[in-house]
Amino acid sequence: MADDNNTDERDDEKISPWQQIIDNPFLLLFIGVAMPTVFYTLWGVMEVATIPIAPY
Amino acid sequence: MTSFMPPAQKNWWNVPVGRQEIVWIAIALVWCLIMFFMMPYWHMYGGQNISNEGYRVTPVKYQAKVNEMIGKYKVREVGAMKTPVVAPPDGGDVYLMARLWQWYPMLELKKDVTYRLHLTSIDWNHGFSLQPVNINLQVVPGYEFVLSVTPNKAGEYTIVCNEYCGIGHHTMLGKIWVKE
Amino acid sequence: MALFRQCPDTGLFFHKEAENLMKANAVAGVVCLLIAGTLALLVVLTRWPAVHLLPADTFYMVLTAHGICALIFWVILFEIAILYFAGSTLLRSRLATPRWACAGFVLMVVGAIMTLAAVFGGNSSVMMTSYVPMRADPSFYLGLILFAVGALIGCFVYLGTLVVAKNEKTYEGSVPLVTFGATVAAIIAVFTIASGAEILIPTYLWSIGYISHIDPAMYRVIWWALGHSSQQINVAAHVAVWYLIAGVVFGARPMSEKVSRAAYLLYIFFLQLASAHHLMTDPGISSEWKIFNTSYAMYLAVLASMIHGLTVPGAIEVAQRKKGLTNGAFEWLRKAPWGNPVFSGMFISLVGFGFLGGISGVVMGTEQISIIIHNTIYVPGHFHATVVIGTTMAWMALTFLLIPVLFRRKMILPQFAKLQPYIFGLGMSMVAVFHMAAGTLGVARRHWDMGFAGNPLGFEYPATAYLLMGIAGIGGVIAVTGGALFVIITVGSLIFGEKLQPEAGLLQSFGVPLADSAYSDEKPARLPMAPAEAVEADHGEAGFEAPGTFILAMVLLVSFVIYYFINWKYLSEVWGLA
Fold this sequence. Notes:
Chain B is an alpha+beta fold. Chain B is 23% helix and 37% strand.
């Protein structure tokens, strides 16, 4: 079918790595959970946990 | 038609982006960076920054500090509750305590003198909201906030509680007087 | 065998079980909106100083219920409906594991009822944030946990549906932009809900006496990963709804798939860091952590929102110009269908979110500027602009669009439906603006009595603050009127609306499926890629496809810059702090 030919032609082009990331919901899920967990939650918890005891 | 259909090109990442979007992204990015660098800039050159100095503290220890300060520097008492008013020495440590539903004690400070203000709560979260200047700080139980404060204008100031702390929340006030 | 029906008006395919779940989640969401709106009226009439309706204990109870019902139950229930729509309907796919989706829905409803029952029981007036060591009834936390688990199931059913659609090749190429936006919302939701579990499960155990102590500072850090991120789900989802409505109403195509999706990618990376906004004036946390997180790592998520702010109206402008509305910079906008609540609701949502909610949010989230705003009534002013004008109005516009499609009923009271977005938008803008203004005068949030009656120390806010709170009160009443109109029109349409299909009866409105004759077990044809764009003459100016939108974007930027530095000026005048 004409449509299929068309699709195959488009398949020949190399898909950019950025598009591959964006098209992969589970990789995005990993990034979307890991980023705030590391930078916000873990770092934040470390900040609170390292507050020293009052010197008096 | 197409925001809810698959992109027209299988390889949409390689479709060139229009000039309008590129210009706008560049402008917006510059603005974002300006906003980002304003914060460290203000830490270096600005006069109003949140200190990073904080400690873990227990209510018993902190109350002892508050009472010690009151014992040394009390100048008078106010109201039916006989709430002490403390005038700490120039540049000295000031211990302010939040509790249900009172800021304790009251303070008498001098204009243009820098004090080390200590702040904590001995029960629940409270909100230090100094009016009418509108300085707002979170007061977390178990944690002592230490900030250098420099009053820049004489007058009577009120500390409102702006973190919900139960049924008496809206009656929780404190006072600071700043003298020339 | 999965049953599908095709909507004769829109051509959309509905998987029977997905359709019922969309209806159930959306109807439950609107019930929560109704409760939240009713409570909003009581809150507004109490904070309006001249009225001061409720006694203090009832006020704090009602405010707690209002916050939870609106900010958590309404938006998340509706979001789950959007996820199923974006995953199943837009991809022409069956929904993955409908039974799990049902279980998730039941958990959400049970959880919501349990938490609200705890609040109205009177011993859980702890506000939405429930900061420890203030203690609520254990069922308060348990209800929230059940609700969160239910929502998490919904997110995974959605992600599972993406897998089903891909494996069964129900669409060609990449998923549509709207579905991609929904995926971003679902991802943010997973982080949000996981954070909620992290903090609410220990807090529940503490409330029943199993754990002796929850650290109050730690609680605040982790709770806000729930509290703020839950509103970021909204941002990702309502931007997707904007794109959807632009596509449906105008046939607009995204100006660039790459730009829009890259902007969404920035959301995935950075948006959730902004939970730190709430901790700018907390003791002991370093400025490095505060600056990095509050700025979404150099404001890259703000950049993403500014991009959507250009590309959504830009797509509309390009589509309108193609139709020949090319006179001047703004003919495309002037001749937009302002009488169609789907468009007007969406556009007010876009403008209100950008100008009122977006600018104020970035300004108040600046580390030092937070000092003059934290916990004042400026904060509710801000988030009523984002969550109510932004999200709720987008949800409302989508509801107007989908009632005929999903429930096969004609809308009733079309004249009132036309007015609804304007009434609601006006009222809520007043609430947002005047609360923000009162906040700059120091008026506290979550506060029953700005007059401090009975306190011998005495304190008076300036008279202007009372005036501003009074105007905000009027705005609140207008907004509640607009909200009531929405509920009357939508619920009324489900019950009294003219049937668009003979099989549709009253029961269908509440999730009972249409008669089976409406469905067929034939698999829908594969969803094709959008037709490639014919090369046409450039309708814009100087290589700018959408010059009018660019002017609007520059107006936004200039307002942003001015307002940002005005706040630095205010800050520089307060006591020295270091």
